[in-house]
User: Which sequence fits this backbone?
């Protein structure tokens, strides 16, 4: 998911919060797999962290725009 992704650009704060929650849940599960040495794609951790940052950035932009 890139910042130019229409899904991210057009999302409301409620949708972004839900996306962030889902991504954090996935990151948690991946970390559990990593701790148990069962993680197949370690690069996925990095991608999820970056997606979380993108969602948080977009939420911040919307907050600044609305205030």
Assistant:
């Amino acid at each position: 998911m890139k910042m130019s992704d229409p899904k991210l650009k057009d999302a409301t704060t409620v949708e972004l919060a839900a996306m962030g929650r889902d991504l954090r849940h996935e990151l948690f599960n991946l970390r559990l797999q990593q701790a148990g040495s069962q993680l197949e794609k370690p690069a996925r951790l990095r991608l999820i962290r970056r997606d979380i940052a993108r969602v948080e950035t977009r939420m911040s932009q919307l907050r600044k725009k609305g205030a």
